[in-house]
Write a structure and sequence with these properties.
The structure is a single chain. The protein has 363 residues and is an alpha/beta fold. It folds into 3 domains: 4-120, Beta Barrel (OB fold (Dihydrolipoamide Acetyltransferase, E2P)); 126-283, Rossmann fold (3-Layer(aba) Sandwich); 297-348, Ribonucleotide Reductase Protein R1, domain 1, CATH 1.10.40. Helix content is 29%, strand content 23%. The chain has helices spanning 14-27, 30-34, 39-51, 88-91, 159-172, 190-199, 216-220, 239-247, 297-309, 326-333, 338-348, and strands at residues 4-7, 10-13, 60-68, 72-77, 80-86, 103-107, 115-120, 126-131, 136-142, 146-151, 175-180, 204-207, 228-232, 271-274, 280-283. The strands form 4 sheets. Strands 12-11-10-13-15-14 form a 6-stranded mixed sheet, sandwiched between helices. A 5-stranded mixed β-barrel has the order 3-4-5-7-6. The protein has a two-stranded antiparallel ribbon with strand order 1-2. β4 (72-77) and β5 form a beta hairpin. The longest helix is centred in the N-terminal third of the chain and has 14 residues, at 14-27. The protein starts with a strand and ends in a 15-residue tail after the last helix.
Length: 363
């Protein structure tokens, strides 16, 4: 008689039960919870599991994207860190590919040490920046709960730019927090902190010096088990130093300060770290500026340009060199950017200059 456990009419061996227990552990447990696994993600993953072929189902498991390379990924699973590649169909569709922080369903293969990513689970937040003049977006990080916006009381302190950061974070669905780092650069950081509080009422504002550790405890308090935070800000504000201070080790390379007071850009790839005591931290490459992505932004930008075009001298002005072009005049005046006009041409298929319209001007 085979030792095992009855499950209906099927008798399972001890090895079968061990495999079942292992699979259950890959879909539940404190290891996944610490990575930010939620009931909603579990439900979505079960839908993917049910849709998979029966012979594939036992090899599927959930994972968090902790590193993104060229065609390869580092994943965190309940078993630890593992390498992964994309399934063939996902390689052909950039919009379906995972980004830093994504939760995915991956398949364990018998003939490869790498997992194969087969699906990206729904994102509860998406942090993206506008590209092509604001007419499309580039997703930077997914499933971030809190975004720590880092600045310093020096040449980097730019309230309009910081306001764009806050707006972008709100649009992502995450919660922003403003960090004034390098407080030793000023005799009195209070005027800077007051401006930050006025810029974003209700948003947490922290003063700290990551190099000395002053004020670091307050920032650590925002990082709890299962909570994912991201660092954004210009190069040189001390994001890598702050990352090392929060992690308690030299995980991110820091750079020297340039003669103009700005730091060298040191982080060259987005990396997801586990913070001692709980929480996860994404260190992003320094972003000099950011344009806010709005889901309605494409239509909004097109509408703005079309409205301006109503004042062009020619009814069918292509905005590529005709006299009396209101759109190009708006670019010269700074009402819209040259990048927005280029993106408009790309969408309209009118990027190449055409000969001037011969219709008479509007009266």
């Amino acid at each position: 008689m085979v030792a095992g456990h009855a499950r209906g009419d099927r008798v399972t061996s001890d090895s079968d039960q061990m495999q079942t227990d292992r699979q259950a552990g890959e879909w539940h447990g404190p290891e996944l919870d610490a990575l930010g696994w939620t009931a909603a993600l579990h439900t979505a993953a079960q839908d993917v599991l049910k849709a998979a072929a029966p012979d594939v189902q036992p090899d599927l498991l959930p994972a968090r994207v902790a590193g993104v390379g060229r065609g390869s990924f580092r994943l965190w699973t309940a078993q630890g860190e593992e390498g992964a590649l994309l399934a063939g169909v996902m390689r052909q569709d950039p919009d379906s590919q995972p980004v830093m922080g994504d939760w995915v369903v991956a398949q364990r293969l018998l003939d490869s040490p790498d997992l194969r990513v087969t699906a990206v689970l729904p994102r509860h937040t998406t942090f993206a920046r506008a590209v092509h003049g604001g007419l499309s977006r580039q997703v930077i990080t997914a499933n971030v709960d809190t975004v720590l916006i880092v600045t310093a009381p020096d040449a980097d302190f730019d309230l309009p730019r910081l306001g764009r950061y806050v707006a972008a974070v709100h649009a992502s669905g995450a919660q922003p927090a403003l960090l004034l780092n390098k407080t030793d650069l000023t005799r009195d950081p209070q005027p800077f902190l007051a401006q930050l509080r006025s810029l974003a009422p209700g948003v947490s504002v922290y003063a700290l010096n990551a190099r000395t550790g002053e004020g670091l405890g307050d920032v650590r308090g925002a990082l709890r088990p299962g909570v994912t935070a991201a660092l954004i800000g210009s190069s040189g504000v001390g994001k890598s130093t702050l990352t090392n201070a929060l992690l308690g080790r030299d995980a991110a390379q820091t750079g020297a300060v340039m003669p103009d007071g700005l730091g060298r850009h040191t982080t060259t790839a987005r990396t997801l770290y586990r913070v001692p005591g709980g929480g996860l931290l994404v260190d992003n490459p320094g972003l000099r500026d950011i344009a806010v992505w709005d889901p309605e932004g494409v239509a909004t930008e097109l509408d703005v340009i079309e409205q301006i075009a109503a004042d062009c001298r020619y009814r069918k002005c292509t905005h590529t060199g005709e006299p009396g072009c209101a759109v190009r005049r708006a670019v010269q005046r700074g009402q819209i950017s040259a990048g927005q006009l280029e993106a408009y041409h790309a969408l309209k298929g009118t990027a190449a200059p055409t000969r001037r319209n011969s219709r008479p001007p509007r009266r």
